[in-house]
Structures are given as structure tokens and as C-alpha cells.
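Session log. Operator J.P. requested a structure for one protein chain; no other inputs attached. Running the standard single-chain path with C-alpha cell output.
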Amino acid sequence: QQQQQQQASNFDNDDSISKSISIKGGEIQKPIGPEKKEADFDVLVVEDSALTRKLIEKVLERLKVTFQTCANGQEAVDKVVTGTEFRIILMDKEMPVMDGHEATRLLRRKGFQYPIVGLTGNAMTTQITRFIESGADEVISKPVNLAIISHILRKYGIVPHEDAKEKDKEKEKDKEKEKEK
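Structure written below.
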């Protein structure tokens, strides 16, 4: 509740539609989660809406991250419990069979330590707080877009920051120049 610090940030997508993100405990200074080589997949998408799931899949494909999808919280818990490793979970709030709150709570009880980001179409403070109390690291409002998902994945070290991408490009150019000499 009030003991948990929440900050809100606004992001604009290409259509200049503002989206809010609630963050538990402020900004994360360094990436958390297993190293890329240790995880089976980068992202687990848990979303019952086929349309939203497809949109998120397209964004993740564009960002070149590995992922799996589930249609409800029970499927997500089953995947994690059977040993499939993910560096981050994007978890819908309202789903059949098992909702996002319960799935998040169960995953935390079973030892899942990596980021769980709640997805909700209901951005009321009480709903966000309930998701955070269930164990989510933060909650983002739907609909999601490339800018929001890429920000989240950069924040948690799943995809490199733009600065790192630029440095990598510069290194590649330098290597090619050296080869030409």
C-alpha cells in the first residue's frame, strides 16, 4: 500500500497516445534476471486475448527476442514449474482458469525471482496496487505498443539500450576499416 513506492511515467507511441507505467520501488539501475545464455526464452507472454497476444508477438519478433505464449495463468505456472526458464514474464490481469494476480502470487511462492510485468486494461490505482501486492514488479496499461514493450525489455536488460546498439555499430565499422587496411 503506502509502504510500496510507486512512480508513474508516461510514454507516447507513434500515435502520441499516452500510456502509463507504474513501477515498484523506483528505477532499476542494472538488469535483473538470468543471463541470456542461461534462459530457455527471453519472454513469456501470458494473455488470453488472441489479438493482444498476436500484437505482442509481432513486437517481440521485431525486437528479435525469444518468447513463448500462454492463454492463462495456469499454463504460465505449469511452464515455469516444469523447468522452462524465462528472463521476464508479461502477465495479463484478467484471464480464464487462473487470473494474473493468482498466477503471479503462485510463481513468487514457487521461487520465480525474475521480473513479472502486469498487463491491465484497468489502470485504476487499486488494481495496480493489487497486482504489485501479488508480486508483480510493475504494471503497464493496455493496449501495449512497440515503445512501451521495448522500454520495459531494455529496462530489465532483455534487449540492449539504444546507446549500446550504437556503440556496437561503431565497433563493427571500426573492425571493417581495420580489415580494409
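Operator note: The chain is about 40% helix and 20% strand.
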